[in-house]
Each structure stands twice: as C-alpha cells, then as structure tokens.
C-alpha cells in the first residue's frame, strides 16, 4: 500500500477527535474483568484495540459490537478468566500485549502471546522480569520477546518495583497483576507516565493510591479488589490529534478546530513543545469523559522556530517525536531532541526511522544515541522522498503530513499500519483539504 501526499495550500476545517487508543484498550480490559455488563461508547475501532477485544473474548469475556464505536462487554467477574484455546494474537500492539501479560499473570491459566514482525522484536523483559518476581512463570523467545507462553497463578505475591524505564505499559501491567496479587503492589515511577490505568481502575470501583514524588510518583494497589461494570465514553486521542495539529501549523493557510480532545498533563507534551516553537494552540474546556478532562483545540499556520525539547517533556510526548521532527524540519533553526532513547524500542527504532524519513526528503538531521538534531528548512522542506515506514503507523502518518507542506510530494512504502491506531486518518485529512492518494 504505497501512498503519496501531495503539497496543498490550505488545511482547514472542524473535526471530532478520533478516540484514544490507550483508553480504548483499558476500557475493554477492565470491562472484561469486571462483574456485570460494561457499555463503551466512542471506542477506537483500530486494529490494535480490536485485537485486545478478541483476546478478552478468548479469555472468557463476552465482547459485542452494538454499533459504530458502541461496544458491550460482559466481564468474567468472580468466575475469573479461562485458559484460551488458541494463541493470543496482539498484532502490532505493545500496549495490548504488555497489559494483558499483567492480567494473565494473576489467574491460574496459561496463554501463548504472539504478534507481528514489529511486536515480535520488541522487549518484553521489562514486564516479564517483575511478573516473575511476583511468581508468574514464562517461556519466551530469545531476548525475552514474543512468541512467549505465560503461566499465571491465583496467589501472586505483591512487590514494590522501580521500573528502569519511564513506562506506562510496565506500570499498568503491574497494576493489573497487582489487582489479583496478595498484598499491596507498589510502582515507584521516577518520571510520571500516562495515568489512564489509575483513573479507569478507579472508575471501575478499585482503590488506587497515587502520591506525587518529585518528577515521579508512588502508585499502589491492594490485591483482591473487585471491579464493577460501568458505562463509559472514550475521550479523544491527543496523539492522533497531533497529526492534524501539525498539518495546520505547517500549512500556508492552516486553521483547524478539533473537538473532544483528552486534556491530561501526562499526554500533552507535544502541544507544549509546539507552543515553545511558536505555534498558537487554543484550548476550550468541554466537560469530561471516563475520568478525563475534554477540550476543544484549535491550531493554525505558524512561523515555527527550532528549540531544545525540554527532557522533562519526553514521557508526555513519547509517541509524538516523529511528528515533532516534521515540525522541526519545517521550522527555522535547529531542534534538538535528547533523553529519548526509549524511541529505539517503539513500533520501529523511531530514532533511525525519523532520521531516514527526513534525509530522503532533503532535510539535514544528525542521529544521536538518545535523539536527533534537525536543521530546519525555514518553511521549505524539499520532499520528493520515499519513506520506509518499518511497520510503524506514526512514521507513516508523519511522512504524509510532511508531504502536505513540502515542495515535492512525499511517498510512503506501506500505509497498512495506519489502521492500527487511526483508521479514519486518510478521510480526516481529506476533509481538511489534504491530497493523499493511494488505495
Ligand atoms: C502506552 C504507553 C506508551 C506509549 C504507547 C501507549 C499505553 O508506551 O508509547 O503508545 O497505552 O500505556 P510506554 O509505556 O512503553 O512508554
């Protein structure tokens, strides 16, 4: 699926934000564990989330689609999960697989976890090591990767754990395991990461302790708590909105309003960085959804300046570095990203993928072990390149956004992965005036 994004002179319009991927996974997982019937509206129907739904069904929950984005989940409650009769296939999803390892670990069941080429290369030791300390056992492929078989137990021991990397997936995995462990599980995060699991667990009736500690937090959960079904609405995804925002900022005539975006300080680093680069970012309160605040956000054309991205913003914009690199390429002056070595183990090695994405489009960029240094083109990105996406949806979308504002069209080798997180991306971009071609 080769797609080409041709330059356009304006990006304008109003859209409803696509649903948040992190919250969609969590709503299906917690609904599947709870006692009773959970109704979810506005679920993201991207491939990653649909795989999580299939996995919960294979483990005994009843998961049913009632209409567009409207899902019903009858949770297993006190009867618990059953061993699945087939492999659990997570496709491209690190979040689905790592969170579900925490879930499976807390039940006396065995499951085999598999995924696509990208997921099968990603490190799982970061969750397997603490789960093994709690008493789960596993057999994994070389380097603690998928495919792997995990054996859980109903008498896991709670642990206190300090994750070596700032990772919401590790924290969430351990909170889910801790829900069924004996005693209090504590995660000492040195840097705050996205807190949707904590918020949603509370929404489903669990008590979760959160104490801020400097730049980090002590997050705790007592084992043996029961979840109760709720009705919930998934808020808009700031990570998907970042692409629409960037398109407006790069455009000679940009003016975009996006409604219903989740406003959460653990996710808004990209908007803060864009504001530091000189982009006006408008926000208006619109109530809340699933324990999260909602805002309408507006974005417009901007004369961007390069910045040193503050390292304290890294966890709250961890998924936004490919699109930030596109803003940096368009800006005047240099932009430096550092302290972001986690990007090496995302859906692709995002440092090297970003470096290639910019280089093949005529932008000067230096690769660093923990980031990159971009020489801005002062509004004139040459373009004309074919970008290798490496099974990475965010590289694919970033390159297409670059094409809207480059001097020559930008092509990507494979658009298939966009459906993992933002199936409406092409339609949304077309509605705003982009010219993205391909089938
Ligand atoms: C996610 C956490 C982040 C992020 C991923 C979604 C989540 O990963 O990159 O896209 O939903 O918990 P890490 O926690 O590994 O940084």
Largest sheet: 4 strands, mixed
Helical content, roughly? 25-40%
Main-sheet strand order equals 21-22-1-23
Output the CATH topology of the largest domain: UDP-n-acetylglucosamine1-carboxyvinyl-transferase, Chain
What separation lies between the terminal Cα atoms? 7 Å
Q: Can you describe what's shown?
A:
The protein is an alpha+beta fold. It has 2 domains: 3-19 and 235-438, Enolpyruvate transferase domain (UDP-n-acetylglucosamine1-carboxyvinyl-transferase, Chain, Alpha-beta prism), CATH 3.65.10; 21-233, UDP-n-acetylglucosamine1-carboxyvinyl-transferase, Chain. It contains 13 helices and 23 strands. The protein has helices at residues 21-33, 47-58, 94-105, 117-120, 125-134, 168-178, 196-203, 238-250, 269-276, 321-330, 350-359, 393-405, 425-431, and strands spanning 3-6, 10-16, 37-41, 62-67, 70-74, 88-89, 110-114, 137-141, 145-151, 160-161, 184-189, 208-213, 216-222, 231-233, 253-263, 281-289, 292-300, 334-337, 365-368, 371-375, 386-387, 410-412, 435-437. Strands 21-22-1-23 form a 4-stranded mixed beta sheet. Helix 1 (21-33) packs parallel to helix 2, helix 2 (47-58) packs parallel to helix 3 and helix 10 (321-330) runs parallel beside helix 12 (393-405). The longest helix has 13 residues, at 21-33. The chain is globular. Residues 22, 95, 167-169, 172, 193-194, 318-319, 342 line the site of shikimate-3-phosphate.
């Amino acid at each position: 699926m080769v797609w080409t994004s041709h330059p356009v002179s304006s990006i304008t319009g109003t859209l409803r934000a696509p649903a948040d991927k992190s919250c969609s996974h969590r709503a299906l997982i917690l609904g599947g564990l709870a006692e009773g019937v959970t109704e979810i509206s506005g679920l993201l129907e991207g491939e990653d989330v649909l795989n999580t739904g299939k996995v919960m069904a294979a483990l005994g929950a009843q998961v049913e689609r009632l209409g567009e984005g409207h899902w019903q989940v009858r949770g297993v409650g006190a009867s618990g999960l059953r061993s699945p009769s087939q492999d659990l296939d997570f496709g491209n999803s690190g979040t689905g697989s790592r969170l579900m390892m925490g879930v499976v670990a807390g039940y006396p069941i065995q499951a085999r976890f598999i995924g696509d080429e990208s997921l099968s290369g990603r490190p799982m030791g970061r969750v397997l090591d603490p789960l093994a300390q709690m008493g789960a056992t596993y057999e994994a492929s070389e380097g603690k990767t998928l495919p792997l078989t995990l054996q859980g137990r109903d008498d896991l021991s709670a642990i206190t754990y300090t994750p070596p990397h700032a990772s919401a997936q590790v924290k969430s995995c351990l909170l889910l395991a801790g829900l069924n462990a004996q005693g209090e599980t504590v995660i000492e995060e040195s840097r705050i990461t996205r807190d949707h699991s904590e918020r949603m667990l509370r929404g489903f009736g669990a008590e979760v302790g959160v104490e801020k500690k400097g730049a980090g937090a002590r997050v705790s959960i007592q084992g043996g708590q029961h979840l109760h079904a709720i009705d919930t609405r998934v808020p808009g995804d700031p990570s998907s909105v970042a692409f629409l925002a960037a398109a407006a900022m790069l455009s000679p005539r940009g003016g975009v309003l996006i409604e219903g975006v989740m406003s959460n300080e653990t996710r808004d680093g990209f908007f803060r960085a864009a504001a530091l680069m000189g982009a006006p970012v408008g926000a208006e309160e619109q109530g809340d959804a699933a324990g999260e605040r909602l805002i309408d956000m507006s974005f417009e054309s901007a004369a961007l300046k390069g910045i040193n991205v503050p390292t304290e913003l890294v966890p709250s914009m961890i998924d936004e570095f490919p699109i930030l690199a596109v803003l940096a390429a368009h800006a005047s002056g240099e932009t430096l990203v550092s302290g972001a070595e986690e990007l090496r183990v995302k859906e692709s090695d995002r440092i090297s993928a970003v470096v290639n994405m910019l280089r093949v489009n005529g932008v000067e960029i230096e690769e660093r072990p923990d980031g990159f240094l971009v020489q801005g083109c002062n509004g004139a990105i040459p373009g004309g390149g074919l970008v290798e996406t490496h099974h990475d949806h965010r590289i694919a979308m970033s390159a297409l956004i670059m094409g809207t504002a480059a001097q020559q069209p930008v092509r990507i080798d494979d658009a298939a992965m966009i459906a993992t997180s933002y199936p409406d991306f092409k339609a949304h971009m077309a509605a705003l005036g982009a010219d993205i071609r391909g089938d």
